[in-house]
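In the previous chapter we treated chains in isolation. Here, by contrast, the input contains two separate entities that must be folded as one system, with a combined length of 610 residues.
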Amino acid sequence: MLLEVQDLHVFYGKIEAIKGISFNVNEGEIVSLIGANGAGKTTTLRTISGVRPVAQGRVLFEGIDITNMASHDRVKLGICQAPEGRGIFPGMSVRENLEMGTYVRGYKSDTKAADLEHVVHLFPRLGERMTQLGGTLSGGEQQMLAIGRALMSRPRLMLLDEPSMGLAPMLIAQIFSIVKQINSEGISVLMVEQNATQALRTAHRGYVLETGYVVKTGTGNDLLVDPAVRAAYLGG
Amino acid sequence: MSHWLIYRTFWDLTVSGIVLGLIYALVALGYTMVYGVLRLINFAHSEIFMVGTFGVLISLTKVFGISLFDDGQYPYRSGFVLVAILVCSIIAAMVVSGAGAIVLERTAYRPLRGAGDAYGAVVLAFLTGLIASFLFSDHIMTNLAIAAVITGPVSFGYVRIFRRGRQAPRLAFLISAIGSSMAMAEAVATWGPEQRSVYTTPRVLEKKVLFNFLGADVRIDYVIVAIGAILMMTSLLLFVNRTRLGRGIRAVAQDAETARILGVNVNSVILVTFLLGGAMAGGAAMMFTLVYDQTRFNIGFLLGVKSFTAAVLGGIGNIKGALLGGIVLGLAENYGSSIFGGQWKDVIAFVVLLTVLMFRPTGILGESLGKARV
């Protein structure tokens, strides 16, 4: 098992946002967490990245307990995230944004050029915009940049927070096909989505979150045809 | 009539205004960079400058053994010896100020961010014990012993308070900044040999006039300040723009949480930022003593406020803005005090600030460290 979350509790101030959830991601899988606003999806990803402290429970990565590990050490182990709202550095060029992905590998940059080439191959649009400032990109380009930047760190597990948010339907399809392609290269993906239909079609397995609890789990197809899930998240 | 004076001395005022402005600018860099990464006005930065001037004083008098006067003359040195002394004293100042800034960050600010490291807890527990010990004894050895005994249990308590993830409210950082500023100045005033009086630094450099610029005398110390300040600022800009750590600083300034998610060790980036700001203040401290030959426990106060003004004037968080703000402020002060009289000097600085902020609330250049596309 690549990632294992056991009975996780997370607080925002005095409010308990995650009330004891357990799930896992196997090697080579795409897993989707779906749920409404405030279900705790983003909090879960931020906790796995190590920017929210854990109140109770454990997070294991390849069997190593990373519950209290500093976030930069988690990136070194191979967990990288394309965060909510994309988190593009507005005053850095596209190239600098991408190179931030390799920050954690230090000065040893011999693979940087190859990684850059790989990302440009996946997202030709970024190649055309290399010297442009991150803040001037369109929403779709920013999302590509966020995913490309996470790829630059050579992750084992990629966390994607709402990759389809605010994008046109054509771009959404493109983003999800890229997610599949990344996965086919051997990178496991944990994805959080409000666009449940697309997310479940792309994913091998899914978990349904409701106000801090996991209420349902199954393969992507099982959840797609589940009447309760359809009623609540897929518009009937 | 005083307003005639400005016509006769305009270029003199310009030259000395730029020199003063460059010193403001170097100190302003520390305010602006720390603001960039922490969104915090580090009011104790003025005392980082102050300890730098004492670094110069100690390196000149104790390390090089230079006295204030040799046979009633200034202790001038020349040639290679002079260069060596100047270089060593600026390094001393940068090391003292840089180290001071690091200790300040780890003691006064990091515990408030909930980083939960033991270092800050132990140092704060020791200081708590030291302060408490003065209730019982005035003998320094007894005080230290009491403090050492108290450190153990109290630091255990502090570690629990600072445990990971508990961020203090914004106001706490400000109180901590002002408190450590006062503590540092008063410590020098209390334990320094001259207490609250002025310390004169030995004048090793004979301040000859090098050349004449439109009727203004340009002295050698002015030239050294100008070259030194520009070298330091250029290397800082290169560091921030070209190196991996510099990119880390910009990333934290633009979006600290995303920087963390991408594997930037935010605490070490903050530490490097304090170190750089401190080193710049140390360089400014050496240049200040070179030009004015003196220091004092509260030398940083007014200069710090002015440099902060310069940082806001240029656009807080903006490295080039600090340079521009410093020079504008230095010039405005010099011209203004010539027109209205020297007693108006400080008033003018703040009138300039208020006027600029009325029309451009984000300062002249206005961008933050993160967004500066330098």
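DSSP finds 13 helices and four strands in chain B. Chain B touches chain A at residues 164-165, 244, 247-248, 250-251, 254-255, 257-265, 367, 370-373 (CB under 8 Å). Compare these points with the single-chain example from earlier in the chapter.
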